[in-house]
Each structure stands twice: as structure tokens, then as C-alpha cells.
Design goal:
By secondary structure, the protein is of the alpha/beta class. It contains 14 helices and 19 strands. A hairpin with a 2-residue loop joins strand 18 and strand 19.
Length: 406
């Protein structure tokens, strides 16, 4: 892979059963022309020997922060500056916690704290540990610092349990490293997303709106940008920071969002309608504050433009993804919406449940497309966004299998 050739990859290995996959990853990276320096924690050596990794990488494996052969000249600082990318695979729950806390209690943690180069972590742990709120909080903190999170996969685990937490396969990690160096697997792909609520004015001080916080849409924008896409985020009024590498367009009403989306569609390959757009607006917005005089007041409402359906109905529409917020019969109503609006994928969530949905940091999704369905279980919206983007990209790739799908 041309993107990896000549690059310097510091491969950190922490103590988990999945450490055996790091040997295969090392071999793949070296075979592709990368220089690989392996750094192991003490626990990692309980699962795979340094001798194996030294033979595969062709370099002496580093293990100790206090190795006299290297630390006389502050070798750990030199090593932190040497790499083009630090990849920790597998990254255990313990290591993620120490990294999130900014600890420097072993060589690998010190390197991650001292370096200025990009860091990627590939989590691997029991599904219960993965879904623990402490792990979710640690990952959220790392993501805000720009740490890339690759995975995990879901399936049968070494402990016999089933669920998310499996280390991505070495071939997939190899591909992600290559994509990182060439700008991401979505480099050159233009993505337009909507996020947040809209506000429909009743008078100068009142408006109709909903409870959308915009968190899911912003997480999706970040996930697409991290994979190299050119992202335009059209957002209603929210109190969220713009993700790195994302072009932001702020709007207030549904008609303003519709105008901004239509103006951004040129060259768009993927459209994701995540905003909770108001279905109706007041027929007339009063020019002055409405006084509380009458016991009863009638408010006439008119339909707002259906942005998602309008995008899907374009002569050459982008690959279109919609969202459905339901309070019952989630899959049934979502599939009806997918067919009625003509979109490629619909992601539905239950907003009346005790967990997830509007104004919360977690969510769960039922994702449907023609001939397929997948349940994405309750997770931090950042992780959920990464999983959904992977699913979208897979289906998008089936539709456009060539290098330039546009």
C-alpha cells in the first residue's frame, strides 16, 4: 500500500488476549514498506513475546521507561518524536483510562503524553467493559483531544460472551493506517449533513422547536471528517463546538436549512439528514410580542419543506441517509418512512425510552436499508456515529464500487 510505504509507525501493544493479532499487523505494515517500532507494556509480554515482534519488525522491542541503554539520552522523548503515527493495538480499558487521565507511568503511556504526532487507538476488551460508562467517558475525553478511535468490532469474544469489544482484524487496521496516510478512505468524497433543531418564530420572542441537541449530527460530522471526507454541516441553533475539518453553516428555520442544503448539494456524494426539522411553522409570525389577553388562542400552522425527500428526489441524488425519531413501532414506522421518502438508509431511534434519544450522550439505532437491517445497541453517540458511518460507507461502496463514485 503506497500510503504506508516509508512511514514510521510506533505500534503500542497492551495486555490483552488480542495481542496476538499485533504480530500479523506488524508483518503487514513491514511488508508494505513501513518502519515499525513496537513498544509493549509489561502486561502485553504476558500474552506475546518481545522476541516474536522483534523478529517481525526488525527492530529491538522497547518495554521499559528506565532502560539504561536508551534513557541516558532521554530516549523516550526521541522516540515520541520519531513516529509519523502512534497506533495502540490492542488498547485495553486500563490503558485507555490511564491515557485519558494523562498518566505517564510506563513507556507507552509516556510516549502518548509526550508526542505531538497523531495517535490512534484500537480498543479490545470484554463487552461489559466496553459498555461501562467509565470507558465511554474515557473515550469521549480522548476523542475531544483528537485521538482517533478505530473499532472495536463486535462478535464472539475469547471469554465466550458476544458483543462489541473485539479488536479489529489486522487487515482492517492495516487498511486504516494506509487510509490515514493518504487522507482517509473517504478522501475526495463530499458529505452534507444536517443537525440540531429548527426554530419557527411565532413572534419576536417565541418560537416552535423540539428537543434535539444536535449531538448525534455533530458526532457523525466528526466521524466522516476523521475518515477524510469533505464535510458540510448545516445546523440549527445548538451549543456545540464545530468538529475539526468540518465546514459549518448555521441556520435557524426549516426554510433556511432547506435553502442551505440545496445550495450545498453540488458535488455531494452522501447526504445525511440528522436534523430534527420542524414539520410545521406558523402561517404568520407576529411582528410584535403577542400579549396574553385571550383565554384561548388558535395558531394556524403550514407545512415546512421536506428536506430529506427533496434531496432524495433530485435528478442525480446523492446516497441519502435519513433519521426517524419514533415513540413506538420503531422498525415498522422507519421502514415506511424510508420507502415513502425514497432514501437509501434510515436510522431510527426510540425517543420515548428511559435511555438514549434527544438531549442525551447515548443513543441506540435501528438501521434499515433495502434488504437489510442492523441493530446498533446503546452506546456513546461518538462511538455510535463511527459504527453508523462504517455501515453507510459499506452500503455506499456497494452502490459506487469504483475509485471515483461520482
Amino acid at each position: 500500500m503506497a500510503g504506508v510505504r516509508g512511514k514510521k509507525v510506533l505500534l503500542g501493544i497492551t495486555g490483552g488476549v488480542a495481542a496476538y493479532k499485533s504480530a500479523v499487523l506488524t508483518r503487514l505494515l513491514v511488508k508494505s514498506g513501513a518502519e515499525v517500532q513496537v513498544v509493549m507494556t509489561a502486561a502485553a509480554a504476558e500474552f506475546i513475546t518481545p522476541t516474536t515482534l522483534q523478529a517481525l519488525s526488525g527492530r529491538l522491542v522497547r518495554q521499559s521507561l528506565f532502560d539504561p541503554a536508551h534513557e541516558a539520552a532521554m530516549g523516550h522523548i526521541e522516540l515520541a518524536r520519531w513516529a509519523d503515527l502512534i497506533l495502540v493495538a490492542p488498547a485495553t480499558a486500563d490503558f485507555l483510562a490511564r491515557m485519558a487521565a494523562g498518566m505517564a507511568d510506563d513507556l507507552l503511556a509516556t510516549l502518548c503524553l509526550a508526542t505531538s504526532v497523531p495517535i490512534a487507538v484500537a480498543p479490545a476488551m470484554n463487552q461489559g467493559m466496553w459498555s461501562n460508562p467509565a470507558t465511554e467517558d474515557n473515550l469521549r475525553r480522548l476523542a475531544t483531544r483528537g485521538v482517533l478511535v478505530w473499532g472495536p468490532d463486535s462478535g464472539l469474544q475469547a471469554c465466550g460472551e458476544q458483543g462489541p469489544g473485539r479488536l479489529l482484524e489486522p487487515e482492517r487496521l492495516h487498511q486504516l493506517v494506509n487510509d490515514f496516510f493518504v487522507g482517509g478512505d473517504l478522501a475526495g468524497v463530499r458529505v452534507v449533513l444536517t443537525a440540531g433543531p429548527t426554530r419557527e418564530p411565532i413572534d419576536p420572542v417565541r418560537y416552535l422547536t423540539n428537543r434535539s441537541s444536535g449531538k448525534m449530527g455533530f458526532a457523525l460530522a466528526a466521524a466522516f471528517a476523521n475518515r477524510g471526507a469533505d464535510v458540510v454541516l448545516v445546523t440549527g441553533p445548538v451549543a456545540l463546538a464545530t468538529p475539526n475539518g468540518v465546514e459549518r453553516v448555521d441556520v435557524e428555520t426549516a426554510r433556511e436549512m432547506d435553502e442551505a442544503v440545496m445550495g450545498a448539494l453540488a458535488g455531494c456524494s452522501i447526504f445525511v439528514g440528522c436534523a430534527a426539522v420542524a414539520d410545521y411553522r406558523p402561517a404568520v409570525a407576529a411582528g410584535q410580542k403577542i400579549k396574553k389577553l385571550e383565554e384561548h388562542r388558535t395558531l394556524e400552522l403550514v407545512r415546512n419543506p421536506d428536506i430529506l425527500a427533496r434531496v432524495a428526489a433530485q435528478p442525480s441524488p446523492p446516497f441519502t441517509v435519513g433519521f426517524a425519531a419514533e415513540t413506538q413501532s420503531v422498525a415498522e414506522y422507519a421502514e415506511q418512512k424510508r420507502r415513502a421518502k425514497g432514501v437509501d438508509i434510515i436510522a431510527a431511534n426510540l425517543v420515548a425510552g428511559e435511555e438514549g434519544g434527544f438531549e442525551r450522550d447515548q443513543n441506540a439505532l435501528t438501521v434499515l436499508w433495502e434488504g437489510g437491517m442492523r441493530e446498533l445497541p446503546l452506546a456513546d453517540k461518538g462511538q455510535l456515529a463511527r459504527e453508523l458511518v462504517t455501515l453507510i460507507v459499506n452500503e455506499y461502496g456497494k452502490r459506487y464500487p469504483t475509485e471515483d463514485p461520482r
